Amino acid sequence: MNKGGRPRKWNSAKKMEESIEEYFKICEGEPVYDEDGKLMVYKGSVVYTGCKPPTVSGLAYWLGFQSTQSLFDYQKDDKFSAIITRAKLRIESYLEERLMDRDGQRGAEFNLRCNYGWNDKKENANDDGKETGVIMMVPVIDEPEEQEEGDTENV
To answer: Which pTM was predicted?
Structure first.
């Protein structure tokens, strides 16, 4: 029963998961075949056409949401939380891989910093306190809450 407001876009976690898989499949593009019908390979990798990078906003749009905030709101629901978290992790993984790619490194770095909580961490290699200029990108991970003795609910 709808208690007011707009009806929910998704009621089935399974159907949402299937749609998310469709989104990632479309992002991969289509493999290219030569005139003889053989799969084209370049430097050991299959050649694809129509590829596009997976993004959180692209995923939200694909799922029919009006904004990424709607996707985040669904993520708060236990029914959809793991599915959306895993999809976002897949996008973060793609971005992390782009850090190793000269063409996509700057955009991936910006996206990880702004949308995934990554920070620059300066390391000092010298004992004299002078910075060496080495910068590492590291993900920010929330520390797990300490459990009180006898609390087995989250174990």
So the answer is: 0.69
